[in-house]
Design a protein that fits this description.
Blueprint (H helix, E strand, L loop, with lengths): L3 H21 L4 H16 L4 H20 L5 H11 L3 E3 L6 H13 L5 E5 L2 H17 L4 E2 L11 H7 L4 E5 H11 L15 E5 L1 H7 L5 E7 L5 H10 L7 E4 L2 E4 L1 H11 L10 H15 L7 E3 L5 E4 L6 E2 L8 H8 L8 E7 L1 H5 L4 E6 L6 H8 L3 E3 L9 E2 L3 E3 L2 H18 L3 E5 L2 H13 L5 E3 L7 H7 L6 E4 L21 E6 L5 H8 L9 E8 L11 H7 L7 H48 L6 H32 L7 H22 L16 H23 L2 H35 L8 H30 L1 E4 L5 E4 L2
Parallel strand pairs: 1-13, 1-14, 2-4, 2-5, 3-4, 5-13, 15-21, 16-21, 17-19, 17-20, 18-19, 20-21
Antiparallel strand pairs: 6-12, 7-8, 9-10, 10-11, 22-23
């Protein structure tokens, strides 16, 4: 939250930094770089980072100048102080976020703990890491960053070296997946990730908001391929809106009539019953694929007949990324392409929860103030607006409003032609790949040379952006235009008025529009922006409204003031819907978060060599046996009651013999499945009537099994290692089962809105029940793994284990 006090505090830091610079400027290169060890020593002796900040910032400012030839402006130092303080700093495009980050990263690296700069794509991480890394190296610190030209996948040793650097530049996606993979390793020596201490998030609103709706997911073994996708896809095409289903606020669900239709179509009696979980899930997925997810807006079908996701925040295709829980396969069924293999989810995390794991988090972007309330509510972070280094000369012209897309697009084309004839460069920003293709065709009709930058040719992004500010340049782009890359003006362009930004179509939120406008007028350059808006913009959805359609067709007059009101109201609803979806995504993941923390902490202890005490193993075994004996007793009791209701004598010899054989079979089956592959004489008829006797007998078999495994291994240290690994396997198997089920459950419960149920409450209830079931399964599998595994020490001295 912006306040004068915050800026006053930042300016006091600026004054101290500038005073310290006067002393540091006269140092030799060797003396300057030697300051790093002095700062580290002072920190180790108890001096705080806040106390060191003026001198450390001054030192890195001088290093920036000597290595890069760039001395940070006052506003960059203000931003650096805000970033060190854990704020989210709003800095206009072209104000030098990259250089600002060198100061707080250097300062926090003096602690010896990890410091990261996370950005949205590998190109930026590689470019900025290579350039700024020279400064850190000059000051005696190591810096790692991705190699943009290296397509080879890093192994664990290379990743361990990467994350051991003092300062790390990486992407949000790479960090998230590395976190998940690091928590899947089976051995301590395979871990590679550093602890999470300090992070600066570049393009923070894109990462923390726009990308937050889709959790990162690692898939494991393939599922048995379902044949329900095509069947449910056909079923959904027969549904009638408002009769069989309702679409509202970017959600869709069956009406009571639609549920009855589904039950009739699939020949079932309870659509929401557990026995029909898969049918329910697949219908919901197909309904979402047809009604909520649009081709060339949410995804594209490539020339290879594959469905690839489209990142609306950056305009890039998300190669190799698939929607989870079967949603991707439902889209493929809709688009009539080959349905890809569905895989089980083995690990998942949202960006919200990932970045809240850091001890200290900060961020920067050009468009944070519009979302300051949500950022504070979700992350507890205040936004500080940093002044520009030079006065902003860009003129943001009033939006132009049209009743239909034809007038909107052709007016924009005419204006682009008029500007192009003067030589002034023009950047045309649109919402979707479809719109960029359409506008490009209109320009071709008018013989206007231009570049197109969208998800189909993102490879050329840097080159296209580099030329977008040159004389006569016309660039047509999706919302990705220039993200993270400044558009620099060519010779003679300032005199023509700088870059002109033409926005076509009201975007989903004002942040995206401000991002586009910010391409013009960087560092005090001239330029202007203007948006062309109509009732046929995607955000309005006019094709579903007969009244609006009459305005669009010209059958009914409408004032531009009313168009403005309608379009802006639709944008407001879109913003609220996006925020609600992000909150829902966070709520879903928070259900898992406590369980994830518990599981990952348990894994870490086991990997670090924590012993699993014999008493704990015995306690778990007793708990398992108690559950079995209670169920065993229940079966006996039911059989006795059944005999009484049938008026049979309880002491009938033949009946008792048959029941004794049944109980013996159940007991032996339990032993073979959980304790030992060898059976002994067992219990007598009378012993089996006593729950205590059955429990004691089974526990005796457990003790015998533990002794047998200890003797087989023959080394106490190796035996403890075996118990740890057997426990870890049981924990991992149970965790995978749980999160895979919960991924599918999200879609299955979504349809219950039609039954007037609270979807999140339903999800939380079933998730809790599933966790209790998983806890029991893990305990059973711990004992099974320990007692039934074939274990020995090989010739190389390593444990060799074949699990049951």
């Amino acid at each position: 939250m912006q306040s004068r006090k915050e800026l006053r505090d930042l300016k006091r830091t600026l004054t101290k930094v500038r005073k310290s610079e006067e002393k540091i400027k006269n140092l030799s290169d060797e003396e300057l770089s030697a300051l790093t060890e002095q700062f580290k020593s002072r920190y180790s002796d108890g001096e705080s980072l806040e106390s060191l900040m003026p001198e450390a910032f001054a030192a890195i400012c001088e290093a920036d100048y000597r290595v890069l030839g760039k001395r940070p402006y006052d506003v960059q130092i203000l931003a650096a102080a805000a970033l060190h303080g854990g704020y989210l700093a709003e800095m206009n495009t072209g104000e030098g976020k990259t250089l600002s980050a060198t100061m707080p990263l250097y300062l926090n690296a003096l602690t010896g703990k990890s410091c990261m700069l996370v950005t949205t794509n590998e190109y930026l991480a590689s470019r900025d890491g290579a350039e700024m890394g020279a400064v850190y190296n000059f000051m005696g610190l190591s810096c790692s960053y991705p190699d943009a030209d290296d397509t080879k996948k890093q192994d664990d040793d290379e990743k361990r070296q990467f994350y051991s650097a003092d300062i790390i530049y990486t992407t949000n996606g790479a960090l998230g997946f590395d976190f998940l993979f690091d928590n899947l390793v089976k051995k301590k020596e395979d871990r590679f990730l550093c602890d999470f201490h300090y992070v600066i998030i570049d393009e923070a609103d894109s990462v923390l908001l726009d990308s937050a709706i889709m959790p990162l997911v690692i898939s494991g073994v393939p599922r048995v391929q379902s044949n329900l996708y095509d069947v449910c896809d056909f079923f959904v095409t027969t549904l009638v809106e408002d009769i069989d289903y309702i679409e509202e606020d970017k959600a869709v669900w069956l009406t009571p009539k639609g549920v009855k239709f589904a039950e009739s179509f699939f020949g079932i009696t309870n659509f929401y019953g557990k026995e029909n979980f898969e049918i329910n899930r697949h219908v919901t997925l197909s309904l979402r694929a047809h009604k909520l997810l649009k081709n060339k807006k949410d995804y594209v079908v490539t020339d290879k007949k594959e469905v690839e996701l489209f990142d609306g925040a950056t305009g890039r295709l998300m190669h190799g990324v698939k929607l989870r829980g079967g949603q991707h396969q439902a889209i493929e069924a809709k688009e009539k392409v080959e349905i890809s293999q569905e895989y089980r989810t083995v690990a998942s995390v949202t960006f919200q929860n990932l970045f809240m794991m850091f001890d200290k988090m900060a961020g920067m972007s050009g468009t944070l103030m519009d979302a300051k309330d949500e950022l504070f509510e979700t992350y507890g972070k205040h936004v500080v607006r940093i002044p520009t280094n030079r006065p902003l000369k860009r003129v943001d012209r009033k939006d132009r409003y049209f009743k239909n897309g034809h007038d909107q697009f052709w007016t924009a084309v005419d204006d682009v032609i008029r500007l192009h004839e003067t030589g002034q460069p023009v950047l045309v920003v649109l919402n979707s790949v479809t719109d960029t293709d359409l506008f490009s065709r209109l320009l071709i009709e008018k013989n206007i040379p231009h570049n197109v930058l969208n998800a189909s040719n993102a490879f050329w992004e840097a080159q296209i952006i580099a030329g977008a500010g040159q004389l006569n340049a016309v660039t047509v782009a999706t919302t990705m235009a220039g993200r993270g890359t400044d558009i620099k003006l060519g010779d003679g362009v300032k005199e023509l008025g700088g870059l002109a930004v033409i926005g076509i179509g009201r975007m989903n939120n004002s942040r995206a529009e401000r991002q586009a406008r910010g391409r013009a007028g960087r560092q005090g350059d001239p330029g202007f922006s203007q948006y062309y808006v109509s009732l046929e913009d995607d955000i309005v959805g006019a094709e579903d409204d007969d009244k609006l359609q009459r305005y669009i067709d010209g059958k009914k007059r409408i004032r531009k003031r009313k168009i403005k009101r309608i379009v802006n109201q639709c944008q407001k609803l879109s913003v609220e819907s996006e925020e609600m979806n992000r909150k829902k995504s966070l709520q879903y993941d928070q259900v898992l978060q406590r369980q994830r923390d518990l599981i990952y902490a348990t894994r870490k202890k086991l990997l670090d060599g924590a012993s699993v005490e014999e008493e704990k193993i015995v306690e778990i075994a007793k708990e398992n046996i108690s559950d079995f004996v209670n169920h065993f007793d229940y079966i006996q009791s039911n059989n006795k009651n059944g005999r009484r209701r049938g008026r049979k004598k309880y002491n009938d010899k033949n009946t008792n013999n048959a029941n004794t054989q049944q109980y013996t079979s159940i007991l032996n089956r339990y032993i073979l499945d959980n304790i030992s592959y060898k059976l002994d004489a067992g219990l007598s008829k009378s012993d089996m009537q006593s729950a205590a006797t059955v429990s004691d007998y089974l526990m005796l078999r457990v003790y015998q099994g533990l002794s047998r495994q200890r003797e087989r291994i023959g080394d106490e240290e190796a035996y403890e290692q075996f118990v740890r690994e057997a426990t870890l396997k049981a924990v991992d198997d149970g965790w995978v089962e749980l999160i895979d089920y919960l991924e599918q459950l999200k879609y299955a419960v979504a349809g219950r809105a039609s039954a007037q149920r609270n979807v999140m409450f339903e999800y939380q209830n079933e998730a809790f029940e599933s966790f209790l079931d998983t806890e029991k399964a893990v305990k059973c599998n711990i004992i099974r793994n320990i007692l039934l595994s074939d274990v020995k020490i090989g010739k190389d001295g390593r444990l060799q284990v074949i699990y049951p």
